[in-house]
Amino acid sequence: MLKYLKAAFWISPSVKGLGNIPLNVVALICIAILGFGNAGFWLLGFGLEVLFLMGVATNVRFQHMVDILERSVTTTEVAEKRQQLVKQLSPDAQRQLAQLEGKCTRIIDLYQGDQSGEFLLDGQRDALARLQWAYLKLLLGQQNLTAMARTVTTQSLQQEIDGITGELQTSTLTPALRDSKTATLEILKRRLHNFETREEGLAEIASNLKRIEAQIDLALENATMHEQPVALSTNIDLASQQLQMDTSLYGVSGDTIADLDATFAPPSTPQMERHT
Hints:
With about 280 residues, the protein is mainly α. It contains eleven helices and two strands. It has helices spanning about 1-10, 25-35, 40-55, 60-85, 90-115, 120-150, 155-170, 175-195, 200-225, 235-240, 255-265; strands spanning about 15, 20. A two-stranded antiparallel ribbon has the order 1-2. β1 (about 15) and β2 form a beta hairpin. The longest helix has about 35 residues, at about 120-150.
């Protein structure tokens, strides 16, 4: 209810020549000024304001409009964050992702042409979005694991770990600096683990990429033959759970990925752990 009250308070109709004017705010300012001449205006204004806000905020059509605008803003933010991640992919990986996305779009178009039930179509669209998100994360993980071998070695990471471990054993560090170095040490340890297991991780990623591609191909074949949509949600869960990678693998993009996981990950799928 609070978001509807806030939206009602800031209603700003467009006035020709003046733009969007928050009339409710203007009215309150006028009432406040009048109240200095007669305090009764303050009481009257308060009563009218309560009636106005409750009347608008409890209106079903107004609530529906607010919900639509809220979803629109959220969708735009998610799309922008996702596009930032896509830009980090190599040209080949971007083409690989675009090819998968093109098949997903084709699947939805085919079912829309068949006038499938709206509920069924929404479920398929949601499942495909989650599957594309899992695919994007796997591509990013694959790229970072591959690049890791060109930039660091086991020895260099271990030297950094040993250096910070030694610094933490001194008593001259401030509490804030100690906390910062402790957090850095944990990240380095996770990087070392990722480096030591990168070949296994790359093999798992490659397998899951193929698995997702096969699921999309099957869904596209079913749509082409006018079959009922295949149940993709379970397959998405399986694909995204096979490789449990923490956000340290994604470097500076880790927080963005953790945030988007809350949007794309199905309820039954554990969200990626955020590390700072």
